[in-house]
C-alpha cells in the first residue's frame, strides 16, 4: 500500500558532526546530539574497519545493539557491505548494500532466530523470489518481483499447507486473476485472509505525526534539495514500525530523516493474516518541499 504526503518546511535541523578519528562514540537524545550519557536515547559507535570501510553501530541507552551499518566513506553517507538490524539484542534483519542500494538476499528472523522471510534485491528494487514462512517452517507466501513489482503467480498457504490465495499479475503489476479459499477449498472474500495495518485515528493522524516530527536536514535546506522520498517499512504483529528502508530519495540525508521519523512512530494497529496479527509491509511517498 502506498500513500502520499506533502510537507513544507521552514525549520532547520541541527548540523551534523564530522568524523575526526578512527573510533568515535556519540550520544543522542531523540536525534539531537547530547553530552549527557544518562539522557541518551541512542548511542553511536563509529570505527574504521579497514582501508575501505567504516562501521557504525547504533545502540540504545543500555548498549543493546539496534543496527550495524557498513559505509565506504568517513562521512557515513554511502552504505556498502553488510547491514544488520536487531530486535531485543538479536539479529532481526540481515542483508547487504552496494552504493546505498540493497542487493542480494535480505533475510528476516523471528525472536527464536528462525527465518520468517527472504527477499531478493537488485539495485534497490525487489527482483526475484520472495518467500515468507510459518513458525513451523512451512511456506506462508511465495511469489516473484521484477523491478519492484509483483509479476506472475503469487500464492499464500494455510499453516497446514492448504492453498489460501492465488493471484496472477501481468507485466504492469495489474492483478488479472485471483482466488481466495478457506481450508476446505471453498471460495471466500480476501478480507478473511488479509487485512492491512492501520494507524490509530487513521492515515491522516499519521500524516499529522510526520508533519510535527520531521526536521528538514540543514544541508538539504542549504542546497535547496527537494523531491519525493519513497519509504518502505514493516508494521509488526505487535504494531511496531520496523525495517524502514529508502526505496528512492533525492538525497541521502532526506532518506535518513524519513527513516528516523518512521522508526520513532507510535505503534500501529497491526494487520492480520488468517485472523491473526502479522508482520505486514507498507509503503509511503513523502514529498519534501521548501518555501
What does this 3D model show about the protein?
This protein has 291 residues and is mainly beta. The chain has one domain (2-18, 75-290). The protein contains 3 helices and 21 strands. The strands form 3 sheets. Strands 3-2-4-5-6-7-8-9-10-11-12-13-14-15 form a 14-stranded antiparallel sheet, with no helix packed on it. The protein has a 4-stranded mixed sheet with strand order 1-21-17-18, covered by helices on one side. Mean pLDDT is 84; it is low at 6-21. It comes from Pedobacter fastidiosus.
Summarize the helices and strands and which ones pair or pack.
Elements lengths: L1 E8 L13 E7 L2 E2 L8 E7 L5 E6 L5 E7 L9 E7 L2 E9 L2 E9 L5 E8 L2 E9 L5 E8 L2 E9 L5 E7 L5 E6 L13 E2 L7 H11 L4 H5 L4 E9 L5 E8 L3 H12 L7 E3 L2 E3 L1 E11 L1
Parallel strand pairs: 1-21
Antiparallel strand pairs: 2-3, 2-4, 4-5, 5-6, 6-7, 7-8, 8-9, 9-10, 10-11, 11-12, 12-13, 13-14, 14-15, 16-19, 17-18, 17-21, 19-20
